[in-house]
Amino acid sequence: MTVLTSTRRDCIVTALSAEQILELDQKHVWHPYSSFTSPLLPFPVDSTDGVRIKLKDGRELIDGMASWWSAVHGYGHPKLKEAAHKQIDTMSHVMFGGLTHEPAVTLCEKLVKIAPNGLNKVFISDSGSVAVEVAIKMAFQYWISQGQASKNKLLTVKNGYHGDTFATMAVCDPVNGMHHMFDQVLEKHMFVEAPQPAIHSQLKSEFNESHIQSLKDQLENHHQHIAALILEPIVQGAGGMRFYHPDYLKRARELCDEFNVLLIADEIATGFGRTGKMFACDHAGISPDILCVGKALTGGFMSLAATLCTDKVAKGICEGEAGVFMHGPTFMGNPLACAVANASLDLLMTGEWQQQIARIESGLEKGFAPAKDLPQVADVRVIGGVGVIELKEPVHMPTVQPMFVEEGVWVRPFGKNVYVLPPYVISEEDLAFLCAAMVSVVKKLPIN
């Protein structure tokens, strides 16, 4: 393989062609949910800017995925770049055990200010899955410390998704989820029927109390063994892109209080304005005992997540035998990531995201309207900055992914769902282009 190099001062800059990148990629790189026996060739990226991804072959794509929900301010936002440059000259990392620093304490203060009431203790971690692992560990250690070790099960709803690590896989949908093949090696927890789906216009309608009955029954019959109820507020993400009524979440909070069970809200995907509220919990006006955030926390610049809890949970944990919370990631509180997260939260705290999300919601509803009558389509739904075209049949990724690229957009469907969560900064023109491209691809899909 020939590698093109050029010398720039004391640095050697290596430039690989698209073909060279793909050759090395096929030999060594394992992508998310990919196979070495039936590889789906990725598209080599040259650069990103704003809402655009520039491929090595020169094509530009409007990004409908915001880098898996994270790049809410688009790529290369000057405020985030400035924060990263400033922090890396001072301190890129230092261990968090026994030490502290301004970027971390400032970040925790800001998270507490914008989080639902009562969540005032913050544990910083590296990724969304770890944040949920931390939440689960908090719940278990809380009850162990309270002398109720028999409360050692989790309760959740079907169609949920909470991550790819072992504790999080165990609370993903056990039948239809991505991890059902691990059923024999995962911890067994309790599941109830998923909340009844609702389109956006129904989210403010009267709630049917019968929809909460299976959750109520499980809590009433097994609360003595349940440490926590964990769910994704209002929007179930990778488990099906389903929306549900805020009163389901409100009633879930009331039932957890009634039966002495902690409530964990997984807002890795929905936090920081994506659904039209700063947190999806705000749609129901509730506060969980434990809250998980990630993805958009640094505006997509780098991996960072956090788990927030109440004084009750923190005190309950620390009253136990260990006297401390038994967790400590090596890169916890990374100053570089915290500095960028602070800049990202500063952008959100200006309030501009509210107008941005309202514009996106309106644009998605208008742009998806032509898809409603297509024979390939089962449902179209929008909430905030989340838009979903649900198909009647699952997509064939090797076929459909290049079709979106040919249309000039980056959309990554899964199962029956063709969905987008564009960066908040997307213009009306780019959003209209994105929606039209999605409808165009769906029209071309086979009808069974």
Can you put this structure into words, describing what you see?
- With 448 residues, the protein is α/β, with parallel strands linked by helices.
- The protein folds into 2 domains: 43-76 and 351-444, Aspartate Aminotransferase, domain 1, CATH 3.90.1150; 79-349, Aspartate Aminotransferase, domain 2, CATH 3.40.640.10.
- Helices cover 34% and strands 18% of the residues.
- The protein has helices at 18-28, 66-69, 78-90, 102-114, 128-145, 166-169, 213-222, 246-258, 311-318, 335-349, 352-368, 397-406, 428-444; strands spanning 4-8, 11-15, 45-49, 52-55, 60-63, 119-125, 153-157, 190-192, 226-231, 235-236, 242-243, 262-266, 290-293, 305-310, 377-383, 386-391, 409-410, 417-420.
- The strands form 5 sheets. It has a 7-stranded mixed beta sheet, with helices on both faces. A 4-stranded mixed beta sheet has the order 3-4-5-17.
- Strand 4 (52-55) and strand 5 form a beta hairpin.
- The longest helix is centred in the first third of the chain and has 18 residues, at 128-145.
- The protein starts with a strand and ends with a helix.
- Mean pLDDT is 94; it is low at 4-8.
Topology readout:
Elements: E1 4-8, E2 11-15, H1 18-28, E3 45-49, E4 52-55, E5 60-63, H2 66-69, H3 78-90, H4 102-114, E6 119-125, H5 128-145, E7 153-157, H6 166-169, E8 190-192, H7 213-222, E9 226-231, E10 235-236, E11 242-243, H8 246-258, E12 262-266, E13 290-293, E14 305-310, H9 311-318, H10 335-349, H11 352-368, E15 377-383, E16 386-391, H12 397-406, E17 409-410, E18 417-420, H13 428-444
Parallel strand pairs: 5-17, 7-8, 7-9, 9-12, 12-13
Antiparallel strand pairs: 1-2, 3-4, 4-5, 6-14, 10-11, 13-14, 15-16, 16-18
Helix pairs in contact: 3-10, 4-10, 5-9, 11-13
